[in-house]
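In the lab's daily routine, each protein ends up as an entry in a very long ledger. A line of letters takes care of the sequence, but it says nothing directly about the fold. The fold becomes a row of whole numbers, each drawn from a learned catalogue of backbone shapes. The protein below has been through that process, and both of its lines are reproduced in full:
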Amino acid sequence: MTDYWVSQQRHYCKYCNTWIANNKVQMQQHESGLRHKHNVENYLRRSHRENEAKKKETIQVEKELRRIDAAARLSMYGTGKSSPVGPSSAEARVGVATQRGTASSGARKSQQTCEQQPSSASKGIQVLGQSDEFGGYYDSYGGYYDSYGGYYDRNGHYFIYDYQNQHWQYVGWYGNNNTNTITPTNSK
């Protein structure tokens, strides 16, 4: 019988985007070449840059989420106005709370964060009647409807709508821990 031609197996180098013969000599020759070494260095640099960019992006996303959370807290603990324009409204809230004498250290911390971030709400984070990126929206009373069917009022109380009994059920309070807090009740 006559000899017939058999194709040689080939190996794809992902660094160089080329096919090379899959034998020991050709593999060693390719891997010892300057072009391959340069392409491997570029690949490692590129992957390192992409990893750093991903880390920076996650940090930016975390900062943005903290900023949105602070704006939501500002709207929940606010005076009921749609969006405070300047630091004067935040200072007024701090003054009213300290005059009452009911503000604990947790409330002071939350009011200080509100005082530090007064401009975040005026930058357009809290838009009345429009959904935010998480599927929730703010109402004109300073409350927030989340995407899970819950409602945060401006004082930090959380309610869930009970579809079976057709009413809002009080779940809890996410504010400071004063002794004057309302305990959750099961209303039927």
